Amino acid sequence: MLFRLFGLLFNRRSRIPDDRDSKIVKPRLEDHPEGYPRIAAFINSDNDTVLFRRFGNLHSRLLLYKEVELTQLESQLAKLDRDDYSKDETRWRVHHSILGESGSQNAERKALVEKIEPQLLSYDNLLLHDEKMRRLCRPTERMHRTFMDYIYTENPFGGDEKDFIFQEEDFVTLQGHEESWLDLFLHRILLHCRKPILRHIFVSKKEQRKSADSHVQYYSDSRLGIAVKVIIALASTALLLIPVYMFVTLNTSPIKVQASITFFFAFIFATSLSGFTTAKRHEIFAATAGYCAVLVVFLGNLQQQNWSKTTQKASPT
């Protein structure tokens, strides 16, 4: 029974031998013609290169124009309401809908509202789209430099068509997550220290097939993620065991010394958490509070044991 279960778990479904695997598309940058096709393939080739401008100034300019125009229309509608309300023969207009039978005798207000409606919907639509664009992550300097350098070096466009790459502050990335200081540090090491051993570790065969250009470097996101997790795990373990070891070693030290050790390692823990991860402020605060609680409980147990030993020695036999 155990062997049958083992076989069900690890036995892969048998495949009919044919040439289907040879038909799997494995794109390379060089397979695309130079110019727009190859640049589009480069942008799509890696999460770090999916950068696009959000045209923040143009969004703001259009919103500003629409805002001014809607404000003027709003003032016109308010003036019409005041004028109609100030006269007995037209006061009824502010109490009736502009739709239906009363709309024919309220034509000026109806025409003004019909003019406002498409303008307001257009303003709302643009405003919500701009809000969504602003929630997209900004690319790091490393990501923008990689993107800019490739397009600038390849020079695939004619005239000034590549000038958009210099608008660094206007780019957004569709990557979907922010990089921590540790991620940036690892990428910088790989960029400036191109040792064969590092390339063998962090570049899979899939990334190697993407381009034959020696100036284009691809790294495996999954392998970099594993390296970051290992470093974080080692740092977390060290930050927990080192103060515990110091508490045990300095067991007879004054409580002020042990409290200082607790404060120091709590500070190091919070700093490491903010640098090694993309945790938010409330998450860092909660994690640091839990870390301090563990150290304080351990320190309290040590103090209680010392007090018990001192009491036993002081008691008469």
TrEMBL record:
**Which stretches make up the DUF6594 domain?**
36-296
The keyword Lipid metabolism is annotated on this UniProt entry: no
Task: Give me the segments passing through the membrane.
Answer: 226-248, 260-278, 284-302
- Keyword tags: Membrane, Transmembrane, Transmembrane helix
Instruction: Kindly give the Pfam families that the UniProt entry links to this protein.
Output: DUF6594 (PF20237)
* InterPro entries registered for this protein in UniProt: DUF6594
Please state what the protein is called.
DUF6594 domain-containing protein
Q: Which organism is it from?
A: Hymenoscyphus fraxineus
Q: Write down the superkingdom of origin.
A: Eukaryota
